[in-house]
Design brief:
Layout: H1 8-23, H2 59-64, E1 105-110, E2 120-125, E3 128-134, H3 139-142, E4 150-154, E5 157-158, H4 164-173, E6 179-184, E7 204-207, E8 210-214, H5 219-222, E9 233-234, E10 237-238
Antiparallel strand pairs: 1-6, 2-3, 3-4, 4-5, 4-6, 7-8, 9-10
């Protein structure tokens, strides 16, 4: 099994740094180095990464997103361990942390706020019950629920075949201290991690929540974003129903014509 990467940029940058690390042998510690000196790391500083694939980031930022390997450690320069998530570009961004979708079920303990609300809206589709909306900074968002999650049970009751209204009534009548739900992660969704280029763009156009075009050679195109798909969340924030504000046009410095 190979390592896992949130984006194509993470994979390519890690491969470049692995190759650089194998090509440049590590130097032994100099005589007289104090005990407080910084330990060596597996990856050297790569100045060329600052413009890699049209992105805008520094090799220092990449270093911070990679594991530090002390001098004399047994780890070889053979790369990350199998199934390890490596994100030299993405790091611990909000887009990566909630993006892990596992083909299994999990149990969550939901509660209600001081107003008796959970911040959760459900909808019955095709005999199943799904999360339709998670409001920001609510109990539902804090326990890790996301748009598209399938609710299998609420307080021990199976949800298959139930209506939207019935599900909301069950949640409304439930205890404010703890509502036990069994959830399957995002049955009909996938996560795409993208990175802005040096001009601040990721490379796709959106209209009424739907991706309508891609820029060739952009991060969106490289990472497999598809047209006619809808954007549900951006960096963990639900964006369904929000208006798209276009980027302002860059200032025109050339001659003006009437």
């Amino acid at each position: 099994m190979s390592a896992l990467y949130p984006s194509l940029e993470d994979l390519k940058v890690d491969q470049a740094m692995q190759a650089e690390a194998r090509a440049v042998p590590r130097m032994p510690a100099l005589r007289g180095q104090g005990a407080d000196s910084q330990p060596s790391v597996l990856y050297p500083n790569l100045a060329e990464l600052e413009s890699y694939m049209g992105l805008s980031f520094s090799s220092h930022e990449v270093q911070q997103n990679l594991p530090q390997i002390p001098e004399g450690a047994s780890a070889a320069v053979s790369g990350p361990s199998p199934d390890q998530v490596v994100a030299p570009v993405s790091g611990n961004s909000m887009g990566v942390l909630p993006g892990e979708v596992k083909p299994a079920v999990r149990e969550i303990h939901l509660y209600k706020d001081e107003r008796g609300k959970t911040g959760l809206r459900l909808r019955a589709i095709d005999k199943g019950l799904f999360v339709q909306l998670v409001q920001a900074n609510t109990p539902a968002s804090l326990v890790g629920l996301h748009f598209g999650d399938q609710i299998l049970q609420i307080d021990g009751r199976n949800c298959v075949g139930g209506s939207t209204g019935k599900a909301h009534r069950v949640v409304k009548k439930a205890s404010a201290e703890k509502i036990v739900m069994v959830v399957r992660d995002r049955t009909f969704q996938r996560i795409v991690t993208m990175h802005k280029d040096s001009t601040g763009h990721v490379g796709f156009a959106i209209k009424k929540g739907k991706v309508i075009s891609l820029v060739k050679g952009s991060s969106a195109a490289r990472n497999g974003l598809l047209i006619n798909h809808y954007v549900c969340e951006v960096n963990g924030q639900n964006v369904i129903g929000l208006k798209v504000v276009p980027n302002p046009a860059p200032p025109h410095h050339g001659p003006h014509h009437p």
